[in-house]
Amino acid sequence: MPIIASLVVGSDGSTSKEGRSAGVSSAADRRAFLARRRSADALLIGGNTARNEPYQKTPVPVVVVSKSMLNPLSNNRLVHWWNCDPIEALARAQRLFGETIVI
Fold first, then answer.
1. Phi and psi (nearest 5°) for 34?
2. Number of domains in the chain
3. Where are the alpha helices (DSSP H) in 1-103?
4. DSSP code of 56?
5. How far apart are CA 1 and CA 11, in angstroms?
6. Residue 1 has what pLDDT?
7. Which domain CATH number covers 11?
């Protein structure tokens, strides 16, 4: 059950700058992150990530776990909005899309 977690943390412990992770990651970090995304069967993200990060175009399906069904990614046909427990979403994503999920 390959589940790959990616987390960017700045030297001061922050996970974002001006609401986005790009401000606390290097070019090498972003290249490695994009390579992991391309190798996944699907991505699993939260609603806040969907609203603040660039997920308009993705190489694989994206599952957004959020109570808010406001969809800023409506132009991405690979996006699925699910209002459920994250563990349930992970199991469902693996059943529907494949084993390798990047969170």
1. -65, -35
2. 1
3. 27-39, 47-52, 86-97
4. S
5. 31
6. 59
7. 3.40.430.10
Measured CA to CA, the distance from residue 32 to residue 80 in angstroms comes to 24
Structural tokens at position 26? 């290097």
pTM of the model: 0.83
Residue type, 5: A
The type of residue at 67 is K
Q: How far apart are CA 99 and CA 97, in angstroms?
A: 7
The range of the structural domain enclosing residue 70 comes to 3-102
**The tokens 């090498």 sit on which residue?**
28
Q: Is 25 exposed, middle or buried (0-12, 13-18, 19+ CB in 10 A)?
A: buried
- Pick from 28, 34, 27, 26: nearest CA to 10: 26
The residue type found at 25 is: S
For 5-61, what is each residue's pLDDT tens digit? 888 787 788 777 777 777 777 888 889 888 888 899 999 999 888 888 888 888 899
CA distance 58 to 78: 7
